Every structure is written in C-alpha cells, then in structure tokens.
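U., I forgot to send this yesterday:
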Amino acid sequence: MAVPTDPYLLRNLIRCAEHDLGMTCSLPIRDIMNRVYRCPARDCWTGTIHAAGIEGMAWRAAEQKATLRDVQPEFRRAALEALLDRVIVGGDPKIRYVWRTWTGCTNDQ
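Result:
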C-alpha cells in the first residue's frame, strides 16, 4: 500500500451545510500550516474552515467510534474514509458527522 501524500484528511468528506456542496481544499503557496477548506459558493456564510482544526475534531470523534490508536498518521485519511460518510460544517449544530453503517451480509440485492 502506498503512503498517501495528500495533506487533506477530509477531502471528499467535508460539505457545506448551507449549500450542500463539497468544500474545496486550499493550500496557500509554501504555507502548509494554513491549509483550509472553503465552500465553492460565492455567497456562503460558512466561509473558510481551518483544516487542522476540523481534521483534529473529526479524528477525535472517530476515535470515540473505533479503536484507532495504532493507525499511523499517514493512514488516517483512509481510516476516516472507512468510518465517515461525510462531515457537514455550518448550520445547527455547527459540525455534524454522518457515520457509515454496516448492517451485515444479506442475500438481498
């Protein structure tokens, strides 16, 4: 398995509550400490979300759902993708996690 190099743990998982749009990732040139997620809608009140902050909150929420202490940092994105369907930012509550559910195997198609 190759080690992912994408610094955004919530890419394709984080959505704006106001517009129900996937938030875009933005990395200011040579400034990895200021990674952000933004709603692509021009009139969005959700605005810009600091990536490290929201990723840390999502990781702590995931740790409450599953045993993740042995997951190395470079594989955290894959772990979050396996657990989360999406993270919704904005609205009430401000952050909502939609977890994937497993119902077991059935013969139904």
